[in-house]
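Hypothesis: this fold can be encoded by more than one sequence.
Test: take the structure tokens below, design a sequence, compare later.
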């Protein structure tokens, strides 16, 4: 089974993916973004656009996830924002055509909630904490610029199943996905402080400067 976790940038996809992986024995996170940034770095700076527009990314994601789903004895989790109908058909749709059990979920939240989450994550937040003043948000700024488009597109029926997360924690969102997918997660016995520390660690590991 593939759990494709969609949603706006800053919507909690990666945190939810790793929460599920932590509590679902045998599961693995396969992040399509890694392939995208690898392809992007291959190009001269003036040619670096949205890596999802590259056919190589869409075909590569299908090939790698197909291999993982075929050879790995466990649930595969892919946290990735996809808002373009054509790109969605060439990735999620193609994997379904190949016979895989793909469960697609879109994490949604109000604009203000996503903005707050973006401000609390990534290098901008860490640098503000270190130097005590505002700094450029870099990729977070780009994410804010994409936010309205993402929220509008991802509310469309083709991107269901929709899960609103404004009043939900990451562990609770993971629980909801598991129930909908017919999976059983291990109980979450972490305290709030340990959960926060682990989530910060996941966030730091996924900071990108390009």
């Amino acid at each position: 089974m593939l759990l494709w976790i969609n949603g706006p940038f800053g919507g909690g996809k990666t945190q939810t993916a790793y929460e599920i992986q932590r509590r679902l024995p045998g599961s693995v996170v396969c992040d399509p973004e890694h392939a995208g940034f690898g392809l992007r770095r291959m190009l001269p700076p003036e040619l670096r656009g949205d890596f999802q527009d590259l056919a190589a990314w869409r075909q590569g994601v299908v090939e790698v996830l197909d291999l993982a789903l075929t050879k790995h004895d466990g649930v595969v989790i892919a946290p990735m924002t996809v808002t373009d109908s054509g790109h969605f058909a060439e990735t999620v749709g193609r994997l379904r055509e190949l016979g895989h059990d793909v469960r697609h979920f879109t994490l949604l939240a109000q604009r203000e909630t996503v903005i707050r989450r973006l401000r609390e994550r990534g290098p901008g937040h860490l640098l503000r904490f270190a130097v005590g003043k505002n700094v450029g948000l870099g990729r977070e700024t780009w994410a804010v610029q994409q936010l309205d488009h993402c929220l509008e597109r991802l509310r469309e029926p083709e991107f269901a199943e929709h899960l609103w997360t404004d009043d939900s924690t990451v562990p609770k969102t993971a629980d909801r996905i598991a129930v909908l997918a017919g999976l059983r997660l291990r109980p979450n016995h972490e305290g709030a402080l340990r959960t926060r520390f682990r989530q910060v660690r996941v966030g730091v590991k996924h900071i990108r400067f390009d």
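The longest helix spans residues 55-71. Residues 8 and 161 are 14 Å apart (CA to CA).
Hypothesis status: open.
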